[in-house]
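dumping these here so i dont lose them again. two proteins, back to back, each one seq then structure tokens. dont judge the mess
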Amino acid sequence: MAKSDGCDYFRRTSLFWIVAVTLSMGYFTVVVLAPETIPFEHLGPFGSVCSYLVENLSDLMFKMWLAAWAVHLFEASIALRMCSQKGITDGGTRFLWFIQTFLFGFASLGMLLKKSSSLAMSAGRLPSSTVNLLMRSSSIKARSTHCLTRSSSMLALLTTTATLRRA
């Protein structure tokens, strides 16, 4: 069996992230593009929040949906750049990284960033300041995602409380 030089390195993201991102982006897409197909009344407080957002903030929801896909496209382009810096020259492998990162976002890009920083540092391809910047940006994104989740939870709680007070 021949040993690889790293030009065809690819790892699939974990099943957890595949399922989580597919379900959340799929639901978000249906809420934005075809909200009439979702039985919000059967989803409890979550359905009440989604119904409120669709009825009152549909234009904002559409812009957020576009922004989410734009961020995934940006992350996919970063994945291609990281493939180049890492020495992944095989076109099929680069395509796999691009598609996987476009579909699953940071769950895929994070694996490439971690692997590329360790390999590139050992090979002398990236200066340590670049690696530090990449790792810092990944921790900032993780923190901002956590804050966004907490903000969304608070919005859901406030909307549910307001709905219950009206009833």
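---- next one ----
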Amino acid sequence: MTIPATKYEPEPAPEPRAAPGVPRPRGIRGSRLRLAGLARPAAAARHHTRTTLAAWGLPLSVVDTAELIVGELATNAEQHAQGPLSLRLALCPGGVLLIGVRDPDPTPPAPPPTPAPASPDAESGRGLSIITTLTTAHGTTYSPTHKDVWATLPLP
């Protein structure tokens, strides 16, 4: 699937703030994409991730893994958040890729019941397991105006 470049334009990313437990990134590469108003924000986020990380020269294995993580985070935000979303990618010192999806709802979600294992033919229910398996850390950071759901991916 091709998403026309005229549908969205990445904005220059300000210096990203570090997620808890991640050293404050300085002198890194960053990219931010507003997903507001797009018919398929998760698809746009995956496309932006693939093209941006490839342009940064990251290995295909990292690009593929990051695209999967972004897909999980963006799809969850698309399904549960109200309002415009944005995606942030940042190369941090020490060989870490920081991935974040922001939504304007600062309210923490209600704690989910203990999940049952997803059935083999289920189309959902594996997102957190995928994120936990593929990343070194993940979490949610809250502010008075938004929340950031983030994950860190080690680079080879």
